[in-house]
Design a protein that fits this description.
Radius of gyration: 20 Å
Order of helices and strands: HHHHHHHHH
Number of helices: 9
Structural class: mainly alpha
Largest sheet: none
CATH topology of the largest domain: Rna Polymerase Sigma Factor, Chain: A
CATH architecture of the largest domain: Orthogonal Bundle
Amino acid sequence: MSLSKKQAEKLVKGCINNDRMAQEALYKLFHADMLRVCYNYLPNKELAKEAFNAGFLKVFQSIQNFDVAKGELGGWIRKIMIYTSIDLGRSELKFSHMSLIEPEDEVFFISASVLEKLFFEDILKNIRTLPYATQTVFNLSVLDGFTHKEISEQLNISEGTSRWHLSEAKKQLRALLETSGKSTEQLTERSIKAK
């Protein structure tokens, strides 16, 4: 959600002054998008809701540190939600600290015909089947554009381990998506024959 600087400044000032209406407006404005961010990083809805609530608490506690002139409010809140989700996820899963051999650059291709048969929810379900560490690295890299250096610093893993998780995620997703696409194709063929 993109706000004008004037709108963002008004919301931020209201929240700094503990204006309940401004806090409620900020919460409602970013609720759906930020809850979705938490869902991307945590394995179940209860943990995601917990991270979302903790994240918004952090937003309200530190909003005086946000500078409207230097950044976009939605991006700032999103980073808080991502980091809060990752921190909560750490208690659920320990990331491997072993040094892994960096994979060669691999290009994974999924045919367009397979992708056409899949819906966003199907793809999201497949992402959620990945091991938690692999899913988190995939989300940070692909969905949120973090570099391997940033991921390694945030997750306290080596850049090589980050690259390995991303490579593994792509490999597993390719297999899952191809299987899902073939299953969808078979179901479509059966329904056509049944008519």
